[in-house]
Each structure stands twice: as C-alpha cells, then as structure tokens.
Fold this sequence. Notes:
0% strand; Helix Hairpins; mainly alpha; 4 helices
Amino acid sequence: MSITKARKQAIVKEFQLHENDTGSIEVQIALLTERINRLVKHFEKHKHDNNSKRGLFSLIGKRKRLLAYLAENNPESYKRVIQKLGLRK
C-alpha cells in the first residue's frame, strides 16, 4: 500500500515549512497519516491480514510519538496539523 509519487509530492507541498522542506515533523506526520489511512482501507477488505496489522500499529505508534514531540515543542504547529488532518475532535 504505497503512496504514488504525485500524491506524496502533493502532501509534502501542502505541509512543508519552506521550499526545500521534505522531512520536517509536519510532513512526516502527514505522510504517516496517508499511509495509515490506506492501510485502514486495506483492512476493510482483508480482515485477517495480521502481518500488515502489525505494521499499521507500528505506524500509529510512530505518528503518536511525533505528535507528542510536536505538541511539546511547537503547540501552534501541532494544532494546525491535527486540524488539517482531522485527527482529533
């Protein structure tokens, strides 16, 4: 369940902080969210794919750690990212 190159570039362009930014926390969180959403759709069809579920839990944990770091170090950016991605209610 990989992300197409065009979709990845669109996500990076939307969340980048400056022109050459491809690895900031905000971009990483957005890319992880896209991968997580694709895996969730995959599980609607393939409920017993336990190996991929393990990968999904790993991605969720990584995103959670990155969000915690961002919330601690840059609360304004944290609020903007979760609002754009629709992660919290």
